[in-house]
Give the backbone structure.
Amino acid sequence: MGRLIKKNVAGIRILGFSLAGEETVIAAPEFNVCFDVGRAPREIISVDNICISHGHMDHAAGIAYYLSQRNFVGNAPGRIIIHRSLAQAVQRLMDVWAEIEGHPSSGEICGVEHLEDVQLLRGAKPRRGLIVRPFNVNHAAGALGYTLIEKRHKLKAEFAGKSGPQLVELKKKGVTIEKQIETPLITFTGDTALGRFLDLDFVQNSKVVLVECTFFDPEHRTRAVAGRHIHVDDLPKVFEAIGEGHIVLTHLTRRTDLRTAKSILAKLLSPNDLARTSFLMDRTSLSAGELPSAGASPSAGAGFSAEELRSPQESRPPQELPSA
Ligand SMILES: [Zn+2]
Ligand SMILES: [Zn+2]
């Protein structure tokens, strides 16, 4: 088993790893997009579009290695999407590496800001119909979340009965016969405390929302506020904003045992909300997209087995792991 965790959430394949302070990298290979680069694990080198949430080392350390490996294995130059205020520093980093290595690694550093859509690339070519939309979050300077959005053209209802030639005729006359439909597929919040991004409709309507939840200990509330991270007590507000999408929790610390985290969530959330929740780092759970739909009780959903929900206190005692 590789180090990265494979999941299928609401029919979307996700491959990633996320521990606070250590490494965060989450790819959706079918869409050729990766959120943060972590330490640039081998499995994500072939992904053409990397969206960096912010400059902290656990999310961004692998930028130079990713771009260099793309050259080394003969892929088209990679592309880093990052807040405009950080793009120049990343370019300088690549310049310094060129000096150290004695040759440059080609790659595109694409600076973006809040709500500035970027069309994804396939190799060096634009990939029609798929964009990422960056949005401001509440963490370090230049911190962004991203939503992957599918854009399609659809015939307007009033032209549904027309024949092909009639539609061509209308188009020639300059009539707009299509409207654009946006389907938000995946949102990645990066690191953030609660913030106004939860009011954005494309975030609220995403099929899958990868949300950081760094702290689970009641005593860590002040640390969450100081570091601008989400504490488990903030989660009900997240669920309220995101009406129906599947929520995948990321960026736990090594101090938090998954069983403990699950039992805390089981007390905090409704059965319906539990059923649409999983932990990225949970290797044992069925992912939400793989659940049998008929007859499945909501409490048996996502990362939570019925047994775990019945008797969290009887579970194996939490294992204390070394801190990051
Ligand atoms: Zn982090
Ligand atoms: Zn951070």
